[in-house]
Amino acid sequence: MNKQPHKNKLHLEEQEDRSAFIKMTDGGPRYTVDDAILATGFGKFQYFVLLYAGMGWVSEAMEMMILSFIGPAVKSDWNLTSQQESLITSVVFAGMLVGAYSWGVVSDRYGRRKGFLVTAIITSGAGFLSAFAPNYIALLVFRCLVGLGLGGGPVLFAWFLEFVPAPNRGLWMVIISAFWTFGAIFEASLAWIIMPRLNWRWLLAVSALPSFLLLVFYVMTPESPRYFCLKGQKGDALRVLEKIAKQNRKELPLGALATDNEIELQGKNIPIEDMVSLPASRDGDVAPLHPPPKWKDSDMGVLKSLLLLISPKLARSTVLLWVVFFGNAFSYYGLVLLTTELNNRNNTCNHAKAQSDKSSDVDYKEVFITSFAEFPGLIVSALIVDRIGRKLSMAALFFVACIFLLPLVVHQSPRITTILLFGARICITGTFTIVFIYAPEIYPTSVRSTGMGVASAMGRIGGMICPLVAVSLVQGCHQTAALVLFVCVMFVAGCCVMLFPHETNGLELTESVSSTKNEKAQAVKQQEP
């Protein structure tokens, strides 16, 4: 008995979707999600989405920055070896490696909201419990779970991207990256205040609090209208778009909402096997003559979505993106760890520094100072990402970062070391920001979160390895070898950026791998002088 209202609701939604499609095929005016987002602009609705996704970015930044502080502190308290200290960082990236892929698949298959809900629960819970870890093994388990939750960060990024108008996408994606910068600086500030007075357990507990805010405001978050359109749920997509228009005090375009697939169907004949029609209604009624089509890759399994990433149309971009994400994560988190290691008074390889039994206050100050390098990194990104394009911006910043790190192959004074790390951090912050703009732009909605997740997972491998270089090698008096490795990785990543097949600056987002709406635009760009 209680199932009848649910059936009626499903039937009504299906009829709405079919009615919209019939209007479109009858020659009436139509518009896409991109048209609707552009018409309603960036307003009150997007500011809420920005703040929510930004809070997730703050949380992830704090949980990542904390690694450079708790490692030395736990090592001192529990008499750990350098390898055991490195493992505290590596297990976080191991968890992120699994989570980045898993949450990407979940969000592409079940919706963006479900993806970041579970990640917020895991991150907040495991992060807070880390403060009460009774021993080394328990701490490793909790930090690995934190990493599993943090792996969902790209889902929030992709979710925000799908609400941003195409002409201003680069600028707003840089702005959301500022939340990461704020989180990194805030964490360094907390460490500078808490660590000398209390201990690392207090820092872990306080750093977990931002994740709980994601749970508090979750009920207010909308699902992506692009995701709804991909799944053939145009009625749900239209309701979200109407909400955007109402909050932004704008009007939707005239006509019926249409998917990219429906627009292209009017321009060419597409075989029926390339589409999946909505089923007949739950009451057994026969579907109308014109059921709204969906892309054939809108309901894929896990394996199929992975294979699609390495299909001929996406393979080159995917493989190059994996290398760039690896290089970015290896370099960025390596610089964070190098900041404490190269300025650590416990470093027995640098005899110019006094010996001490525990981390000095200078460590926190140096991390705090170099964290501010992210602000000019963001400014540089904002200035160049839409002017010279994503590819040239990333490549230039990678190569300049190499120049900053080269002098550090030999020991430098603390002041020179901080200046050089500051400059390198500016560049790598810029590349990290821009690649998170570029990556979701090259993938269609059907595999956007999966593609971002797998690429992010490759980055986590870089994060797992970097402590072995930034911590173990430096503490083992192999600073030259460590810095040469960092320079080589950055150089290779910069070369891979130049090999990307497409520049995405100004292009609209596509819904499916089968979509061809951007091919003409890309061809025109390649012909431009």
From TrEMBL:
PROSITE patterns: MFS, SUGAR_TRANSPORT_1. One of its GO terms (molecular function) is transmembrane transporter activity. It is a multi-pass membrane protein. Signal peptide: none annotated. Its main location: membrane. It is found in: Membrane. It comes from the Eukaryota. Keywords: Membrane, Transmembrane, Transmembrane helix, Transport. InterPro entries: MFS, MFS_dom, MFS_sugar_transport-like, MFS_trans_sf, Sugar_transporter_CS. GO terms for cellular component: membrane. PANTHER family: MAJOR FACILITATOR-TYPE TRANSPORTER HXNZ-RELATED, SYNAPTIC VESICLE GLYCOPROTEIN 2. This is Organic cation/carnitine transporter 7-like. The lineage of its organism: Eukaryota, Viridiplantae, Streptophyta, Embryophyta, Tracheophyta. The gene is LOC105130446.
